[in-house]
Structures are given as C-alpha cells and as structure tokens.
Automatic annotation (TrEMBL):
InterPro entries: Cu2_ascorb_mOase-like_C, Cu2_ascorb_mOase_N, Cu2_ascorb_mOase_N_sf, Cu2_monoox_C, DBH-like, DOH_DOMON, DOMON_domain, PHM/PNGase_F_dom_sf. Keywords: Disulfide bond, Glycoprotein, Membrane, Monooxygenase, Oxidoreductase, Signal. GO terms for biological process: dopamine catabolic process; norepinephrine biosynthetic process; octopamine biosynthetic process. It is found in: Membrane. GO terms for molecular function: copper ion binding; dopamine beta-monooxygenase activity. This is DBH-like monooxygenase protein 1. The lineage of its organism: Eukaryota, Metazoa, Ecdysozoa, Arthropoda, Hexapoda.
C-alpha cells in the first residue's frame, strides 16, 4: 500500500509552490467535510486571523493523518496536538527552512518550562518544507495513533491544535515566541460544521462507478476543491470542456508511478492528441493516495484562473471529461475508459428530503420505445383529485431501469390551462389514459397549445427539485381539484432497437401541512409566434422577450417576489440564454445566464440566494440562436426545429401573474419582407398563407422568407436589431385571463449595461 502526500521533491512541482500559497490563503473558508465517507476527510482551519492555516487529510482506510501547514513567517513553525490546550505534555512538531535553503524538522513533546524536547522516536514523517516571499509551508504526516507515549493519538473527539511561529523577520532560531501562539478546539477526525457559502457536489461520471468526482464549491473565495476517486492504479485525466469533446478542453492528468513519484500536470487539448502542458500551472494538487485498486487525487483551483489555456468555471453549462489508463504511461489511450458528463458545475445541490413524510403521485409513461433514432412522445396526465389545498414540495426523477436510463434522453412536464370559458376537467379529461402522440407532427392528437407552462424537466444528470422549507406549490385549490399536464419524453434510440419497453417520469411529493408561502411559476418570454423568426443559416441571431413594468406593477405584491429556481427553455437552435433585470433604468445582475445552453440538458436550477423582483421592475429574456445546422427559416413553434425563448422561474409569494410575454410587432416585420397581408391563423405560431402582394399570394410565410427574400448580411442585421430593440406588444397573463400592456414595450433606456466584474482584469 502506498501513500503519497505530493512528492513535491520532483522538480516540475516547484512551480506550484507559489500557487499553493495563493490558493491556501484564498481558501480561508473552504468549507470542509468528509470528502469520501469511506475513505478521506479533508478539512481546513485558519488560526491567528488567517496567518496560520492548517489543511489536513485523514485517510481512514490507512489510518493516517496528513497536514499541510502554511504560516505567514519565514522563521520556524510549531504545530501540535494537546488534550487540554497547554504546551505541557503536548505533541509538537517544529520545522522550517534556513536562509541557506536547508530544511529542518523535529518531532518533540512539550514541557511546562523549557523549549519542547526532541522525542526519542521520530514518528511524524516530514514530507517537505519550503518558503515563499512571505510564507513558510510545511507538510507532515503520521499514523493516527503512533503508539508512542511522547505523541498524542488523533481520535474522533475534541482536542486542541496548538500553534506557534517565529515572528516575520526573525531568524530560524527557536526562541520565545511572544504573542505568536494560540490554540484551537477541534475534533480532527470530524467534518465540523459546514462553512457558510459553500456547497458539496458528487457525481459518478461513468456507468460502472469506476470514476467518481466530488467537489467543494466556495462561493466566497471563488475556489473549488476537486476529489477524484478512480478505479485504477494507472493515470487519470479530468477536464473541463465547453463543447463536450477534447476541443478547447482544460485537462489535468495525474497519477503515481510504480517507484512512488507523483505526477500531475495542468494541460490543454490541442486536438485528439495528448494534451499539451500549460505554460502556467493553475490546478494545484493537495493530496494523493493510491491503494491496491484505486487512486484518489485531491486538487484545487480558482473558478477563473485567468489563464487563457484554462476553462473558467461559471454558471454556464459545461462538460466534465474524464479518462483513465491501466498503466502510468499516459501516451496509451484506451478507447473505453473515457467519457463526457454534462454539468452545471457551480449550481448548489439540494439536501435530500425525508420522502416518508410526504404524499406522492407520479407523472410517468410506460411504452415500447419506437424503433427510430429520436422520438418526442406526448401524453396528457393528471394529478389525484384534491378536495382541499395541498402543497407540492419536491419533484424526483423516476427513471429506474437500465433501459429507462439508457434511452430517456430528457423529458418535460407542462402544466395545462384550459381555454377561457371551459373547465380543465371537461377540456383535458378525454385525453387522459390515451396512448398519446408524436409531439413533432403538426397535429399530435393532444391539446399541446393549452399545455405550455413548463413545470419540471429532467435531462441526463438532472436533479431533484426540492422547495425551500417554507415554500410549497399550491395544488387542489377551489375550482381546480385536478391538475392536468402534458408529459413530453424524448426517447433516444440510435441503434433503432425494437421492443424496448420501460417506464419514465417523475414522482411529485406533496403535503397537507401547508407551508408559509405559496410558490408561483412565472414565465418571461417572447411569444411563440411567427414574430419569433430566425433567418436561414444564421450563426448567432438574437431574439428577446420583455416583461413590461406595467405587468410587474399591476400584478406583483408591493414587497415583491423572491425567485428561488429557474429554467431556461428554448429549442434545438438556441445556444445562449439570459434573463436580465432592470430597475429604475439601471440594470441589476443577470438573474441567470447560460452562455452554453443545450436543449438536451435543460435543468430547473436552484439559485444559491433568492433574487427579489419588485413591482415596476422590467425583465427581459434574451436568446441567441444558431441555425446554420438546418435549412430554411426558423419560426416560433412547438416542434423542436421551431423555436421558443422562455425563462420560467419559481418564486414566492405567489402572485396573479403567471406569464409575461412580448412580441415584435408583426406588421413591421412583414413590411421588411414586402408582405402586405397574411391569412388568419388559429395559433400565432402556425405557418400561414400570404395573401398580398400578388407576387407572393399563395406562398407560405416561410416559403417567402426562404426563397423570395434575399438575406444579405445587412438585412439579417437590420431585422435582428429592429426586432430586438424595436417596439414590442406586451401581454401580462394572469390567473384566468390576460391584460395587454397599453403602450408598446422595449428595453428601458438605461445608461449602462450590467457588466460582471472581471476579476482577471483586477488581478
Ligand atoms: C544551513 O544553515 C544551517 C543553520 O545555520 C546550518 O546548520 C547548515 O549546516 C547549513 N547548511 C548548508 C548546506 O550550508
Ligand atoms: C520585515 O522585513 C521587511 C523587508 O526587510 C520589512 O519591509 C518589514 O517591515 C519587516 N517586518 C517587521 C515586522 O519588522
Ligand atoms: C474496478 O474495476 C475492475 C475491472 O477493472 C472491476 O472488476 C471491479 O469491480 C471494480 N471495482 C469497483 C470497486 O468498482
Ligand atoms: C520514477 O519513475 C518515473 C517513471 O518511470 C521516472 O520518470 C522518475 O524519474 C522516477 N523517479 C525516481 C525518483 O526514481
Ligand atoms: C481503495 O480505495 C477505494 C476508494 O478510494 C476504496 O473504495 C477501496 O475499498 C480501497 N481498496 C482497498 C483494498 O482497501
Ligand atoms: C452565478 O450566478 C449568480 C446569481 O445567480 C451570481 O451571484 C454569481 O456571481 C454567478 N457566478 C459566476 C461565477 O458568474
Ligand atoms: C365559450 O364562450 C363562447 C363565447 O364567448 C361561446 O360561444 C362558447 O359556447 C362557450 N363555450 C363553452 C363551453 O361554454
Ligand atoms: C380574420 O379575422 C378577422 C378578425 O378576427 C376577421 O374580421 C376576418 O374576416 C378574418 N378573415 C378571414 C379571411 O377569415
């Protein structure tokens, strides 16, 4: 069995040394916890106002403790373990670096009156010490129980870390340490209480559980600590990739050689070949351990390393790419031990709910998957009958069999609203229990236009949606005893398998113990209509939908609403989505931005802190489309080749407002193409016959745009600018009706756009 605490003896680690200091200091609140309950605990405490930092790892399997101690001094460091907090009888190590570069270290024990006495047996293992301009760093390790009476065993109970160090410019002579000493009560084998403003996430990246990544996000210091546990004694690779493959990926490769040396490099991909070592090493290794079968590697980095050869961690959709080899020869690439895992890396993970406390119902569909590559299947479903109000508190994916996991690409549940004067039951009930239909065909035999309020979605990697403790989504209120839903499943069957049958869907948990606040859902969108139009072969085309202050003024409560989760929704051509927030002609921080939106990876995203929207605020959803992959004009519509532009969020307390939309004024848009009159439509998104002028008569709207309009770069730009920045017609949709915004709407005339702070420029 081998244990390595970063064999930094190796020359190429030397350039990490200055980084280690920087990271350790910015990790002043790293949070902590048992990174892997069965294996390694990683925790950090800062003492003496951050001048004395102890970062430690407990390897439970090997019963060892590993300390990394970073202190703001170039003199000696003293660190110890004491049962009562005093020097007397304590277990102490003293070490440092002489001015000539030689390191020194000794395992000692404390007495009341003298300098600590050197132990007869040196049980603490000195790994290394080094100095930077301002700091001394020392790494030491030891068994939890050394069995030596001159040491103190590390147990799962409270004891004291005692610390001392020579003052800043002192020599390394161990003299009286003046004020530079103290103690901290700590249970060294426990996770401690979670640090504020941190989140811990875990994902199994492969199908067989051979590659597990855990990461600790610290929003205060903007740092992440990763731990990968890989079922190999060879090399591992871990990377961040915006697009999914090797292209532009930021990669680390590490492992432990047979002779015990550790290797770990920050690299970047330049193609399908071995990634190239970065000029600057920004991923910092903290701990390595290898047993007979597994390698555990812990490393850290900033959200944004400010290195063009790295990929920043942001709120955008990203991919973890992973690989491993059976040997330490990184040149060798196995074809199977690699993959891509889509992730929102900085989103919080919600704590599990105690499901036995709640009632539940399911929205699921069981059928034999059609033997074609891609199917979108829609059914109408309903809730149980409620005779009184209840609160929904959580959604949990129900995708249980291997076939369901392999072939459910994603699904969406939409809430249905009947036409104005009909009851939900009489309108939707006939569709319930029916086999449903292919959602992509123009007339799937289900009332899709009445089921457009996004309720819950799941995509591979999707999480439970759990409401905050004091919030519930009301259901079963007066007049609507049954809730109706359209359930849309994307079946993925690239091998066109025949006869594969499985159930897929969600379990919805609810309670009759009503919570303090009713949650509401509010959508800010461009109307799904012909006015939402993307010219053919547009690489980066913007559309926007406004929620006018008229709607927020008239329908939100005086104290405003609090957004706690959000879902962006658009279709196959959407690449970026943003919900912007304006108040008094000032732009506030974006409510949610995704520069890497992927239709196949839609998630309802909890917010780390709820965001308040006040009456009079203006909200705008912006979408950027790329239609170069398809022929023809893209129009607003229900099919996935058609487009939408919608931000839907969960908020409390519930207000009357459920949707807030706008659209560019159709006559102005038609005028740009020389269209004078179009026929009436049943739905605003239906492609339509052009009536006038005569040369277009009988052609469909999209045919005119595809074949008669000459899409010069100028025209494309003009249509985009006018439809984004020109005047829109706005509508507030409220419970049981709608209210047109009386005056045309558009962006507020604000002085300056919100610019996120670029910390790299400030550094
Ligand atoms: C470095 O300095 C220390 C303390 O002055 C001394 O004991 C040691 O011999 C020196 N080592 C070398 C290689 O000069
Ligand atoms: C330590 O030395 C540096 C550089 O010589 C000096 O700037 C600093 O003030 C000194 N600190 C103390 C506490 O004497
Ligand atoms: C590790 O991988 C081997 C195959 O290489 C497999 O037999 C074993 O079950 C895996 N161990 C774990 C814990 O998954
Ligand atoms: C350990 O093995 C690796 C790979 O064979 C080699 O590059 C390295 O120099 C060796 N290190 C030591 C200290 O022997
Ligand atoms: C090796 O470590 C892994 C996790 O890192 C652990 O699951 C496994 O049980 C360990 N194997 C042995 C033989 O102790
Ligand atoms: C992510 O979004 C939140 C708001 O939801 C914001 O506070 C935070 O600064 C963003 N993080 C990054 C790294 O952009
Ligand atoms: C709904 O109202 C329209 C007129 O507003 C009426 O013609 C129609 O019959 C009504 N439908 C039902 C089901 O009441
Ligand atoms: C289209 O609708 C308008 C208003 O609803 C109506 O006046 C007109 O007759 C309709 N035109 C056709 C061709 O149906």
């Amino acid at each position: 069995m081998l244990i390595y605490l970063l064999a930094l003896k190796m020359g190429h680690f030397k350039e990490f040394l200055s980084c280690v200091i920087i990271v350790i200091l910015t990790l002043s609140h790293p949070g902590h916890g048992r990174a892997n309950p069965s294996n390694i605990l990683h925790r950090q405490e800062a003492m003496d106002n951050g001048n004395f930092i102890v970062d430690w790892f407990i390897n439970f399997e090997q019963q060892t403790a590993h300390f990394l101690i970073a202190v703001k001094t170039r003199s000696y460091i003293g660190f110890g373990i004491s049962l009562y907090g005093s020097m007397d009888g304590s277990d102490i190590v003293i070490g440092g670096v002489f001015d000539n570069g030689t390191t020194y270290f000794s395992d000692r024990y404390g007495t009341r009156f003298t300098e600590p006495i050197v132990d007869d047996v040196q049980n603490w293992e000195f790994v290394e010490a080094f100095e930077t301009e301002t700091h001394t760093v020392m790494r030491v390790s030891r068994p939890l129980d050394t069995g030596d009476w001159q040491d103190k065993p590390l147990r799962d109970e409270d004891m004291y870390f005692i610390w001392a160090y020579g003052s800043e410019n002192a020599t390394d002579e161990i003299i009286y340490h003046g004020d530079n000493q103290g103690s901290l009560l700590v249970n060294p084998l426990s996770v401690g209480s979670p640090k504020p403003n941190t989140q811990r996430r875990t994902e199994v990246l492969d199908d067989n559980g051979n590659y597990v990544v855990q990461w600790l996000i610290d929003y205060s210091t903007k740092n992440v600590v990763f731990q990968v546990d890989v079922n190999t004694t060879g090399w591992f690779g871990f990377g961040l990739s915006p697009a999914g493959g090797m292209t532009s990926a930021d990669i680390v490769i590490g492992g432990v050689h047979a002779n015990g040396t550790v290797y770990f490099d920050d690299r970047h991909a330049t193609g399908q070949s071995l990634p190239v070592r970065d000029d600057h090493q920004d991923w910092v290794p903290l701990y390595v351990s290898e047993n007979a079968t597994h390698t555990t590697f812990i490393f850290t980095r900033a959200f944004d390393t400010c290195d063009g050869q790295d990929v920043p961690l942001t709120n955008d959709t990203l991919n973890f790419i992973w690989s491993y080899g059976t040997t330490d020869n990184i040149q060798y690439h196995g074809s199977t031990n690699r993959g891509t895992f889509q992730v929102l890396p900085l989103d919080p993970e919600e704590p599990p709910i105690e499901t036995e406390k709640y009632f539940k119902y399911e929205i699921t569909h069981t059928m034999t998957m059609p033997s074609v590559d891609t199917t979108y299947w829609c059914t109408i479903q309903k809730s149980p009958r409620f005779t009184q109000k209840h609160h929904i508190v959580a959604f949990r994916p129900k995708i249980e069999t291997p076939a369901a996991r392999a072939h459910t690409h994603h699904y969406a549940i939409f809430r249905c609203t009947p036409p104005a004067n009909q009851s939900a039951e009489e309108f939707f009930e006939p569709y319930v229990g029916q086999p449903g239909g292919d959602c992509k065909v123009p007339n799937p035999g289900i009332p899709a236009p009445y089921c457009q309020t996004m309720f819950y979605t799941w995509a591979v990697g999707g999480k439970e949606l759990i409401f905050p403790d004091n919030i519930g989504c009301p259901i079963g209120e007066d007049g609507s005893e049954v809730d109706y839903y359209m359930f849309e499943v994307h079946y993925n069957n690239p091998q066109q398998l025949i006869g594969v049958r499985f159930e897929t869907g969600a379990t919805i948990f609810y309670t009759d113990e009503l919570r303090e606040h009713d949650a509401g859902i509010l959508m800010v969108a461009h109307q799904t209509s012909l006015a939402l139009m993307v010219p053919p072969k547009s690489p980066e085309y913007k559309s926007v939908g406004h929620c006018d202050p008229y709607c927020t003024n008239n329908y939100l409560p005086e104290s405003g609403i609090n957004i706690f989760a959000l879902l962006h929704h658009a279709h196959l051509s959407a690449r970026k989505m943003k919900l912007r927030h304006f108040r008094n002609n000032q732009e506030l921080p974006w409510i949610k931005n995704d520069e890497n939106y992927d239709f196949e990876y839609q998630q309802t995203r909890p917010l780390t802190d709820s965001i308040v929207v006040l009456p009079g605020d203006h909200l705008t959803t912006e979408c950027i489309y790329d239609t170069t992959w398809r022929d023809g004009t893209t129009i607003g519509g229900l099919a996935t080749r058609d487009e939408m532009c919608q931000s839907t969020f969960w908020y409390y307390p519930r207000s009357q407002l459920r949707e807030c939309r706008s659209e560019y004024q159709m006559p102005q848009l038609l005028a740009k193409f020389g269209i004078e009159q179009i026929a009436n439509r049943s739905y605003p998104y239906e492609d339509v016959n052009v009536i006038a002028p005569a040369q277009f008569a009988g052609l469909r709207y999209t045919e005119v745009l595809d074949n008669r309009v000459v899409w010069t770069p100028q025209l494309r730009e003009e249509v985009q600018t006018d439809s984004s920045f020109g005047l829109h017609d706005g509508v507030c949709y409220i419970i049981g009706g709608s209210d047109n915004v009386p005056l045309p709407t558009g962006y507020p005339t604000f002085p300056e756009e919100y610019q996120p702070i670029n910390e790299c420029l400030e550094k």
